[in-house]
Amino acid sequence: MTSTGEAVQFWVLAVIAVGGALGMLTMRKAVHSALCLAATMLALAVCYLAQGAVFLGVVQIVVYTGAIMMLFLFVVMLVGVSTADSLKETLKGQRVAAVLCGLGFGVLLIAGIANAKLSHFTGLAEANAEGNVQGLARLIFTKYVWAFEVTGALLITAAVGAMVLTHREHVKPPLTQRQLAAERVRENKQVTPLPAPGVYARHNAVDIAGLLPDGSIAENSVMSTLRERGQVRDVSHEMLRRMAELENRTADWLGRPSSERPRPGTPPSPRAALETVPNNESPSEEAE
Amino acid sequence: MNPVNYLYLAALLFTIGAAGVLIRRNAIVLFMCVELMLNASNLALVTFSRLHGNLDGQIMAFFTMVVAAAEVVVGLAIIVSIFRTRHSASVDDSNLMKL
Amino acid sequence: MNSLIPLLIAAPLAGAALLLLGGRRLDRSGHWIGVLAAAVSFAFGLVLFFQMLGRPVSQRAVDVKLFSWISVGGFQANAAFQLDQLSIVFVLLITGVGSLIHVYSVGYMAHDERRRRFFGYLNLFLAAMLLLVLADNYLLLYVGWEGVGLASYLLIGFWQHKVSAATAAKKAFIVNRVGDVGLSIAIMLMFTQFGSFTFSQVFAAAPQESRGGLTAIGLLLLLAACGKSAQVPLQSWLGDAMEGPTPVSALIHAATMVTAGVYLITRSNAIFDLAPDARLAVVCVGAVTLLYGAIVGCAKDDIKKALAGSTMSQIGYMVLAAGLGPIGYVFAIMHLVTHGFFKAGLFLGAGSVMHGMNDEVNMRYYGGLRKHLPITFATFGLGYLAIIGFPGLSGYFSKDRIIEAAFAEGGTEGWILGLTALVGAAVTAFYMTRIMLMTFFGERRWQPDGKGELPHPHEAPRVMTLPMIVLAVGSVLAGGLFTINDAFVNWLTPVTGHSEGNSPLSSGTVTLITIVCMVAGIGVSYLVYGRSAVPVNPPVGSALTRAARRDLLQDDINHALLVRPGSALTAALVYFDVKGLDGVVNGVSATIGGLSSRVRRVQNGYVRSYALSMFGGTLVLVATTLLMRSV
């Protein structure tokens, strides 16, 4: 039996850990999954500390949460966003079967643990008598020294392996600007520079598309990553409305007849009306 | 509270991780699920250590962490190189094993 | 000095290996290597012969063990050679006539691209034949026997671009196989009955064997002899074998290979002496073949096929003599040697004629060649006189003694055999005279060749005429030399035994009747082919002639008796195989294939799907473990 303090701590940590795990499972974006997992790992680290595994608890925070999870985040950033993030299942029956298997497995594990006679916990007071780190060190450098050395070799191998896998040899010299331009002409791509984002000096954010003469947005003025994520902010309606107001004010001042004034709030063109997404319902907000 | 609850927690986390491997398609998330399973077993090992009153369980957990680190390094490198050639991190896109 | 015996075989074998493995660089000199190998072997043979002459009679036979060949339990086979009076006769004949034919081939095959290979095969043949006659046990003899079959196959089919040659080679090979089966079963029987197949042990054990067993072995040996020596009923290959180059016909199908059967029977005299029934079969086969070959020889217009019929007939004489037992063995071998000389000479002469006539073989397109080919005419004529048994020439001495021995068999049997042999002698004189007249006498019936040119007959180069002259000299002298003081009889008696039969007719009477028969044959032939002109297109002829032109329907008989039922049996087996066995096999495989293609869908290539099955498997394992613990 443990103290009440530990019991309280356990229930708090258990909730955090399971919540994090479920979050990792259900979050659409890999970044969010990684953060959820980090939370679970931190909770587990505290569990280790509570169970007398001081060294492991610290290592869990430093190595797992600090190094490995950051490596994950790094790779997530490197790889970027892709369709793999979709939670829609493509294999028929896979999700149902997976959930059933998971449930069955969980029930089996829990039944197995419940069946085991685990009433007496020895506790680590004796083993940790001269300190947890000293105890571990004694074991690692005596009983487990061989395994320890082998894991060292494993780590070296893994490091070299990662380098070999990600290293890319340049088999030909990088293309010069002239060659790139020639290639663009040959492949019939856009030869001129791409249009810049931002509208009339009112916006200069990279996610706001420039406007074409007919008032619709120029998709290729926004970088492809944002376009793929659906994070293009379309401000054309507001711009056009403000333009119309400005012209109306000018017309008032000049005393023009109403037939020559533009009507406020009309969409710039049917094409733009169909294709652009309303500003207040941007997909990035929807995802969050 | 009986410390055996830690084991139940470990079982639960392990199951969630396993289900995640089966459900998620993003290779990186899949990897995270594997890590979760490893962590769950680490928790069980630490609890066993406490159960038996010696530090061997903790040593096991320690080695698991080392191996997991190595595995993550290589695994992520593989994911990156696959992504470079196939422009996809989905495990379903690499189904060339099929006839 | 007995170590020379293996060298006898080794020389041509080395020549064959060198020529066949040496490649193109030997193309220019290869034929002389072949000649040298044969000549060296002949020289060794002569040395051994004179050594043997120098020894007393009881020590003339020598045995040389080379190495232990197969040794398994009670089964003991040595690579050992036995050189006795009989073997040395064969060795000298094979290497002597063989060397002459090698020399002849240098000229005959001069324009053939594959001459080197031809000489390699000739050497291979010599080696195999020498192994056959030198072996001291039946198993080693069998090796040589098969080697001879292989070499003859290669040589008959040497012009493999001709379909007829390839077919003839296969035919010879397959017919020979039938005989070989007889020999192999005979060897197996010997091993089970006597526990050995060494000549000396088999012959020593033979008297204790039952008569039935000996008869069975004798009949099987006869079957083997029939195959190799082209005796009825396995005679059909010899005529077709004339598709090979003419030196091959001379070497294999006249002088040496076909005599292997006679050698086998003579060598096994201890068995045949104790099995009168088998001997009777031998005699019958010999007598039937004698007439069969003679009749075929009368009807053929192809000079080589006519000579082939003659060969068959003469071998028939030898087999007949060998079947007569101790009174005939010696004469069988004597006729074999003299026949080796004159038949080789005749074939080489035929080759020379063909050489001069643009390879034309039809005698109806010859005629009047004696002025154009004087040397060929002279040598061929001497061979002709020898074969018909003209008094004083070698054929006279050997054939006359066989006819005498046939009469000496005694009783009705003796009369029938003697009369058959006499008829054979008359028919021999008839068809040989026919060949002579059609080829060298009469008016020219030359036909233009493919390019519209008439042939220009010319004498062959000296390298070809020289062997012909040597053989002609042999044909004239051999018989006479052998009979001086009964030298040949005395020489062979220690091996084969010899007894003088008591003929109902005196020796002089038989000789007289034989000469009368011969003259009658010549006379009839002269009346038919010499007095009147020979028609260029063959007349229709009687039923017998037409049948004889088709080798007395041998192929039709074989086809009806063997090929048709065989084909039907094979077709039935194929049907059973396709419908029955294949049905079962294919059904099983189709079932498995169908199941697999269903099961294959599980393998969809998605890692997560595989992970699911792994996870499910783990689940089952854990559940099972827990259940087993709780039980």
Write a structural description.
Chain A has helices at 4-26, 30-50, 54-79, 94-115, 132-141, 145-166, 177-186, 224-229, 236-254, 270-275, 283-287; strands spanning 210-211, 217-218. By secondary structure, chain A is mostly helical. The two termini of chain A are 43 Å apart. Mean pLDDT of chain A is 81; it is low at 267-288. Chain B has one domain (4-87): Helix Hairpins, CATH 1.10.287. Chain B contains 3 helices and no strands. Chain B is elongated. By secondary structure, chain B is mainly α. In chain C, strand 1 and strand 2 form a beta hairpin. Chain C starts with a helix and ends with a helix. Classes of the chains: A mainly alpha (288), B mainly alpha (99), C mainly alpha (631). The interface between A and B is large, with 88 and 75 residues.
Question: What can be said about this structure in brief?
Answer:
The complex is a heterotrimer of chains A (288), B (99) and C (631). Chain B is an all-alpha fold and 99 residues long.
Salient structural properties:
heterotrimer; A: 288 residues; mainly alpha; two-stranded antiparallel ribbon; 1% strand; disordered C terminus; B: 99 residues; Helix Hairpins; 78% helix; 0% strand; elongated
